[in-house]
Amino acid sequence: MVPRTLQAKLQELTEAFPIVTVTGPRQAGKTTLCRSAFAEKDYVNLELPDQRHYAESDPRDFLEQYADGAIIDEVQRVPELLSYLQVAVDEDPSPGRFILTGSANFALLESISQSLAGRTGILNLLPLEWQELQAFPNAPQGLFETLWSGSYPAVYDRKAPPLDWYGGYVATYLERDVRQMLNVGNLPTFQTFLELSAGRIGQLINLTNLGSDCGVTHNTIRSWIAVLETSFILWKLRPYHSSDRKRLVKTPKFYFFDTGLLCYLLGIRNPRQLHSHPLRGAIFENWVLSEILKARLHQGWQRGLYFYRDSKGLEIDLILERSGRKVLLEVKSGKTVASDFFENLSEVQAALEIPSRHCLKVLAYGGDEKQKRGEFQACPWNRLADLDWTG
C-alpha cells in the first residue's frame, strides 16, 4: 500500500474516540487505508448483500459478532446500524473499537449527527496528494500528464488507462450514487450538467444560467450541485468576507476534487491537448487549490480556504490562515514568472490592511524553479508540499 498522509491522524483519533469514521469519494482508498492501518481488526463490508441483510435484520446479533470492534465498510448502506453502535460504545467506550467508512457523505453524516455525535471522530480521505502519487513507479512526472491522469489510486495500482477508468467511474459509481440520492430520471440531462459544470470551474456559480443551459430549473441545479458536493465530486470555494467590507462578492465558486475526472468530462483525450486548451489555466488552478485542500484535510484540519474578489474586479485565487498569518495565493499555469503576476497580491494585501509581517504572498506556477522575488515566493507546481498549508 502507498503510505497515506491521513494515516497518522486516523491512528491519533483512535486513541480519543471509540469510533472513527472515514469518508470520501468512492475509490479514493478508504478501505485499503483502514485495513492496512488496523490489520488486526475484523473486517465486514456492507456492500455485500448477505452482510447488509444480516446487519439490517438483526443488528444486535450482527454487532455481537464484533464485540471487540471491527472495520465496517460502506456503513451508509445500513444507516439504522448507527443507533445500535451508539448503544454499544456507550456500554463500552474503549477508544478505537470501530472504524467506519462511507462514500455517500450526505446520508452518512446525517445519520452520524443523529446517532454518534460526540462518539466519533470524522476524517476525509481524498484522492492521492501529488507526493503520495510519487510512490507509484508509473506516477506521472510532467505537469500536463499529472493534470490529465488525475489522482485516483486505481489509475496507478491497476495501471488502468485514465480515459477508460474515468468513463467507468462516471457510468457506475457516480450515476449509481446520484440515482440513490436524487432519483434522477433523465441521466442524459444529468450528464450534460456534469459536462457544463466542468466548463465552469473557477467561475462564480450562476444557478440560473447553468439551469437554462441544461433545460432544468435553478432549484434542480442547486440540488444536483449539493449532491456532487456531498459525494466528493465537486467542492465549493467560498468568498472571503469581513463585516466591515460591504463590497466583496458573496457568491462561491466550485472546483472538482480531481482533475483527471475534470479532463474526462471536458473531452480532453490526451495530455498534449492541455498545452493549448482554453481552460488550461482554470484546470491548473483547480489542481493547485485541490492539492492545498488535500494537504489540510489529510492532516485533520478544516478547509479554511477562501478566494477574494471585490465589486471592482480585484481578485486573487486563495486566502487562508496559517500560524496567525494570512497566506495570499495566485495561480498561473505559465512556466515563466512575470512581475505582473504579483500585482493583485499586493493590492489585496493593501485592501485588507494586512501588515507585511502577518502576510505571506505566494505565486504557484507551472514552472520548475523555486524563486524568491523580494517579499514574494514563487512556488513551482511540483513543490507545493514544501509549504506548510496548515499550521
Overall description:
This protein is of the alpha/beta class. The protein has three domains: 6-124, P-loop containing nucleotide triphosphate hydrolases (Rossmann fold, 3-Layer(aba) Sandwich), CATH 3.40.50.300; 130-286, no CATH class; 305-386, 3-Layer(aba) Sandwich (Trna Endonuclease, Chain: A, domain 1). The chain is built from 16 helices and 13 strands. The longest helix is centred in the middle third of the chain and has 21 residues, at 162-182. The radius of gyration is 22 Å and the shape is globular.
How do the helices and strands line up, and which of them pair or pack?
Blueprint: H1 6-13, E1 19-23, H2 30-37, E2 42-45, H3 49-57, H4 59-64, E3 70-73, H5 81-91, E4 98-102, H6 105-115, E5 120-124, H7 130-133, H8 143-149, H9 153-157, H10 162-182, H11 187-198, H12 207-214, H13 218-230, E6 234-239, E7 253-256, H14 259-265, H15 280-297, E8 305-309, E9 315-322, E10 325-332, H16 343-352, E11 359-365, E12 371-373, E13 376-380
Parallel strand pairs: 1-4, 1-5, 2-3, 3-4, 6-8, 10-11, 11-13
Antiparallel strand pairs: 6-7, 8-9, 9-10, 12-13
SSE ordering: HEHEHHEHEHEHHHHHHHEEHHEEEHEEE
Total strands: the figure is 13
Q: Helix/strand/pairing class, anyone?
A: alpha/beta
Largest sheet: 8 strands, mixed
Radius of gyration: 22 Å
* Beta-strand content bin: 15-25%
Q: Which segments are poorly predicted (pLDDT under 50) over 5 or more consecutive residues?
A: none
Number of contiguous helices: 16
Helicity level, as a percent range? 40-55%
> What's the rounded overall pLDDT mean?
92
| Overall 3D shape | globular
Q: State the domain count.
A: 3
Question: Roughly how many Å apart are the termini?
Answer: 28 Å
Oligomeric status: single chain
- Strand ordering within the main sheet: 7-6-8-9-10-11-13-12
